[in-house]
Amino acid sequence: MTRRAWVSWRAAAVALAPAFLAQGAEAHLVETGLGPVYDGVAHFALSPEDYVPIVGAALLAGLRGKDHARLAILLLPLAWLVGGVLGVLPGAPAFVAPLWLPFLAIGGLVAADIKLPVGATAALFAALGLILGYPNGLAMHEYGQGLRGVVGSTAAIFVLVTLVAALAAGTTIAWIRIAWRVAGSWIAASGLLLLGWALRAQ
Amino acid sequence: MKGNANRLVLALAFAAAPTLVHAHPQIGEATGFLTGFLHPLTGLDHIIAMVAVGLWGAQLGAPAIWMLPVTFPMVMAFGGFLGLVGVPVPGVEIGIALSGVLLGAAVMTESRPPLIAAAALVAVFAICHGHAHGAELPPGTSGLTYSIGFVVATGLLHACGIGIGTIHHWSYGRLALRALGGLISVGGVFFLSQAFA
Questions:
Q1: A99 falls within a domain
Q2: What is the value of ipTM here, to two decimals?
């Protein structure tokens, strides 16, 4: 393994560390005691329904190359921020996208390694950021973190997307690209099970 | 050196974060993941079949070695989906036991059917495993984290199989792999006898 690849793997390990926090901590709208911005960061880091599709989208962008990765770094946090700001507004109507939808859609695209044009990727990321960011903004408003909480979660998304997309875009080794696709299939499989839960609940 | 120290501090900071977290507990998140993750690991019938898929993939080489781990979780989840929405799949327990018998036999004999046939065989068994195991959500646990844990554990079992299967590159390894396939097949026969009992 080259030094560059080794450094990338270590960076990924650090980036993925928050994913394991969800096992140890129980929270939805957490209070870190460090203020609303950090509450927003912690909320995002402890919400697999948010960070798993975002990681999937970053992988999708990275697999498609540097142009798509750069687009993801810009668009995903921006769309999340816009959605969050709309959600924070007083009187914003309640809306939560079906949990399974982003899992199934994004995971399926990553697993199939679909070669989307840049425009389609941009539209997908804008939609994903909006439909995930909006309910996040609603929750921030409800629990009093407000706009600063949205800013915190947006910053967390920016960091996560930058790391994951850069890692995936920099991958040239065939089996590592396959590992990203396997991760996509895991996300899609989780989405399919979630769809089953949702239908059973009805 | 300084960069390494910085990364270590950052990683430790993340790891320490749960001690700062209080309020508004979302019940079932952690137990959901752990329950889902442990579920496939507590059923020997599931373990041997998942490992056998990885072993067989390693024997078959590319493209099966990457095609099976990419497609299996989704097909298995489809089986779980069918179970969740109440679509019956007849003979699920027999199918699970047969998966051990046939996949073990395929490894033992180093069987090399056309890729489409291998994929179809594995897909049928994936549906049986998903149908039986994917829909067993204990009360009080999160469906989201349970699903993630279940899929990740199954995928890691494949990875174990593929990892073990790399001994296929050596002649003694090939022999050991075939012996392991035989062992899995025997295990499958045991589970088959249980299914008919």
A1: yes
A2: 0.73
